[in-house]
Specification:
single chain; alpha+beta
Length: about 200
């Protein structure tokens, strides 16, 4: 059951008021962490592609990175053939390749997203948009206005959520940071090439 698509609204404070421990909702409604069957072929192929790209880059740097990604980052504003302009080169290109490959690997494990209205949201006027994996771990999250959160739904439906600012500017969840169980899996894939993961 996809909360964003099916518009699940868990707003009964008697049933769903968990405070800072909001992930307890998955103990009551574990089906919220089940990806829809229509996304499985896409997710599996994307996970394999992301892992292969990370390993290739770790083994051979820019020369082994996905050519379309290198071309996009090497061109100004991601537009190949722009006359007279120069895109990223050298260390900047390597840093942004690693960042893009890391982002793609993270996006490949996302099975759903939710909007959390907590005490901080009531005070700041910004809800938390949270992207989740199948274990309920936060992959990335970002505080945005309700209007910005509503604009995310179409990008989820067409599987382009990872191009949204909510994703790109999102903060990594604890398990996906260095020292986190999922972050270390990515780090292991990239260790030989001394690729730096984002903090």
């Amino acid at each position: 059951m996809d909360m964003a698509v099916d518009n699940q609204l868990l707003n009964d404070p008697l049933l769903y008021n968990y405070g800072a421990d909001w992930q307890r909702v998955f103990d009551v409604l574990p089906e919220l962490l089940e990806p829809g069957p229509e996304t499985w072929p896409y997710r599996e192929s994307r996970q394999l592609k992301a892992l292969e790209a990370l390993r290739a880059y770790a083994a051979g740097g820019v020369a082994r990175a996905p050519p379309d990604l290198v071309e996009k980052l090497s061109c100004p504003n991601g537009v190949p053939g722009f006359p007279g302009a120069v895109g990223m080169r050298g260390e900047e290109l390597e840093h942004n390749l690693a960042k893009a490959l890391q982002s793609d690997a993270h996006a490949a494990v996302v099975i759903g997203w939710l909007v959390l209205e907590d005490e901080e949201a009531l005070e700041s006027g910004k809800v938390a948009v949270i992207f989740l994996d199948t274990s309920g771990n936060v992959v990335r999250s970002k505080r945005v206005t309700v209007e910005e959160a509503e604009l995310l739904a179409p990008s989820w439906e067409d599987l382009s959520f990872d191009e949204s600012l909510e994703w790109e500017d999102g903060e990594l969840g604890p398990e996906y940071q260095r020292g986190g169980s999922r972050g270390d899996l990515l780090l292991d894939s990239m260790r030989d090439a001394s690729i730096e993961l984002s903090p």
